[in-house]
Amino acid sequence: MTKTERGSHEPTLAGADKNELENIEIELLLCGIHRLYGYDFRNYSLPSLRRRIWHRVHGENLSSISALQEKVLHDRNCFERLIYSLSIPVTEMFRDPGMFRAFRRKAVPLLRNCPFIRIWHAGCSTGEEVYSMAILLKEEGLYDKARIYATDINNRSLQQAKEGVYELSKMQQYSQNYLEAGGKRAFPEYYTAKYNSVIFQPALRQNIIFAEHNLATDTSFNEFNVIFCRNVMIYFNDELREHVHSLFFESLSRFGLLVLGAKESIHFTRHSDSYEPLDRAEKIYRKIK
């Protein structure tokens, strides 16, 4: 039998088999990351993971997920690049201005009664939402008695958040968001422009603590009056979402506030009956049990 004849009878992978092979590759990659580095992405949404993993495969000039697994397990720098791809930050200052406006109107009066305020921004990305909250608290006279904990799994994003440096080109949009969110001053008063970047006032960082925290594997580390977790759990599967909601429930003080993203909800979780809506439209909930 000739080589051509042998090749014509070799089995080929059907579409369903290729998908199954790809799922196995992803599973092995995520298990390897969890065992070697301690990061657990195994309960993240599979379609989102697949898309971002292939982005990293191409970015490393590789041809398969298995090849990426080999490189990730032997090259810490490659692992760091993958982590960044799996947690690509999408955020902006005063994103969804209506939420910040509702927070000023409905949450701030409740916080005035607290002797000390602890706020957790879970999945803070590059820090735009954190600085937005710091500005809001400054304007409401609450910043001096507040401590903001800003956490993320992505160390590269956290580093940018710590520096408070952002692109000058984004400030026009951020200024508009700020005004729509009920801002009380001129937005440029909060930063200094230099070349094509801006740096936010160091005073805004005075009461902010930036730290790595993995919502999938790490536990509660304090009791909070407010927890923000916006547009993070949309990337999780049902099991991980339930786990994170339990983490937040354990971390909130009684009558504490949980603020979710526009596409997220407290409904259909085991703790849904333990909250009441402070502002249903803006996804601000108050713990009552």
From TrEMBL:
Keyword vocabulary terms for this entry: Methyltransferase, Transferase
Gene3D superfamilies from the UniProt entry: Vaccinia Virus protein VP39
A GO molecular-function annotation: protein-glutamate O-methyltransferase activity
Residue ranges of every copy of the CheR-type methyltransferase domain listed in the record: 33-266
Keyword flag Zinc-finger: no
PROSITE patterns (UniProt xref): CHER
One example of a Gene Ontology biological process annotation: methylation
Top-rank lineage group of the source organism: Bacteria
Keyword Metal-binding: no
Enzyme class, first EC level, given as a word: transferase
Xref: PANTHER family: CHEMOTAXIS PROTEIN, CHEMOTAXIS PROTEIN METHYLTRANSFERASE
Protein name: Chemotaxis protein methyltransferase CheR
